[in-house]
């Protein structure tokens, strides 16, 4: 195996300080616009859903509203479901899938379950096509009280208003080739640790909760998504991204212990989707559709089980 070049910010073995974070930030370019791609679609949905601004970010004079859409006439007697996208800003189908679900399918669930949908948790990262926020922090390891990522703590505060009602949380993600070429090397450099190469799985998979596994629920989602795109196989070690495959297309993480988004509601049914947009067997539209199908399959399962 050829040696891996060190990430071009910082020094090997030394965690970043403010100088390195500033250097990293200077490398990030605004490649797309939240206010052009995402915000108009959220605003267009305001006639059918209640818009909620649950916070705001100000990063060096660039401001971003943190926005959610929720069922109008929220019913305290009904269960609730949370759908989140764009926790990692570069994972495009999570954002677009959440919006497509709202535009095309959410109305079918009116009066049956309360919906809270946050299409783009990390708008600064969305614009830079980056995993992290402005401070080189991964929001998806910081969903805990007092964490340094405002993207994470603001969402926790929003969910707390109705936390006891949530029976479902589906968090929409992607695993991309850039995880291996950019983002895992970056986190190793930031933390002063060696980078250990891994494998990117070709296909869709789910992340269940180690502390609250729901295998029948996960398999129902996998079966629905398989009609849209292929499911990632286990590697030679029986793993996907270093975790044991517990059932076809499913691995487990301890969601709360790792500070992951899917752990914030305490819902019985939780899952994190992982779409592979770099596959030669998948198109962007297919990836968006896979996210939508995952959401509808999860909702249908939960409602049938109620």
From TrEMBL:
The organism's place on the tree of life at top rank: Bacteria
CDD domains in the cross-refs: M14_REP34-like
Known cofactor(s): Zn(2+)
SUPFAM superfamilies named in the record: Zn-dependent exopeptidases
One GO MF term: hydrolase activity, acting on ester bonds
The Peptidase M14 domain, residue ranges: 30-299
Entry keyword set: Hydrolase, Metal-binding, Zinc
GO BP field: proteolysis
Matching Pfam families: AstE_AspA_cat
Active site: 274 (proton donor/acceptor)
Stored InterPro entries: AstE_AspA_cat, Peptidase_M14
Family: Belongs to the peptidase M14 family.
Protein name: M14 family metallocarboxypeptidase
